[in-house]
Design a protein that fits this description.
Blueprint: H1 2-17, E1 28-30, E2 38-42, E3 46-50, E4 55-60, H2 67-83, E5 94-98, E6 104-111, E7 115-119, H3 121-125, H4 130-146, H5 153-172, H6 174-178, E8 185-189, E9 196-199, H7 212-235
Parallel strand pairs: 1-5
Antiparallel strand pairs: 2-3, 3-4, 4-6, 5-6, 7-8, 8-9
Helix pairs in contact: 1-2, 5-7
Length: about 240
């Protein structure tokens, strides 16, 4: 009975967000012992652990009742790639997990990212978003002058140029993103095939995909960010 209820919840979640079935169960790895890993962060419903290697582990705080959330995030990722294959390099690698009995575990493996900054374009695009934009600029400047790989001015400029180009590519495919997730959270990274990654593929607080007002704010945020990156390049 519990399994049937869970399957119904998953189906309802996909239907509400108008998403196709995902590749959720195609590949799984045994869930790690998170007590032997370091908790590096998390949110209201997840804890993020990392030990060694290129993959970390996101564990749901609500246990088995979170299985629909995991399925939802895999579905959203698949949907974005299907609608716009160019987005694949901006999405972290994700692999589902199972417990010792072979049943679905309450978490999944996700590509470990070395972050420079995390931001939400929506907030930057809003009426009072200039404060967020200044904070973003300050954080980027601080990190680029501290990190050893960016001590040369040419390296900083090259990275910022890549950031601007990557942001433009994401902006060109924004509809595929808007139609798949509820809120856009992005991180700037230093050791990947792109300077940007999209993280957190959940629905919004209303359990819906991106509302129209948020789409407008994010589009404005993209434009503000590109302008600020040009300023940063000129200051390097």
């Amino acid at each position: 009975m519990k399994k049937l209820i869970l399957e119904n919840k998953i189906a309802e979640t996909r239907e509400a967000a108008k998403l196709p079935p995902s590749s959720f169960s195609k590949e799984t790895l045994k869930a790690p012992d998170t007590s032997k890993m370091t908790r590096l962060g998390g949110g209201n419903d997840k804890n993020y652990f990392h030990g060694e290697g290129k993959m970390g582990y996101l564990e749901m705080k609500r246990g088995k009742s979170s299985m629909d959330v995991i399925e939802r995030e895999f579905s959203a990722r698949d949907n974005m790639v299907k609608k716009a294959p160019e987005l694949k390099r901006f999405l972290p690698e994700m692999i589902n997990s199972h417990d010792e009995k072979g049943d679905a575990a309450t978490g999944y493996y996700v590509e470990h990212l070395n972050l420079i900054a995390e931001f939400k374009p929506k907030y930057i695009g809003q009426t009072f978003g200039d404060t967020k934009l200044k904070k973003f600029e300050s954080e980027i400047k601080k990190k680029l002058f501290i990190l050893p790989e960016f001590q040369e001015s040419s390296r900083r400029v090259s990275f910022l140029e890549q950031f601007k180009n990557d942001l433009g590519e994401i902006q060109n495919n924004k509809d595929a993103i808007f139609d798949s997730i509820g809120e856009l959270t992005m991180v700037i990274v230093t050791d990947s095939t792109s300077s940007l990654k999209i993280i957190d593929f959940a629905l919004n607080e209303s359990h819906e995909i991106m509302p129209e007002e948020d789409r407008k704010d994010i589009s404005k945020g993209f434009d503000k960010l590109k302008g600020k990156i040009n300023d940063l390049i000129g200051s390097m």
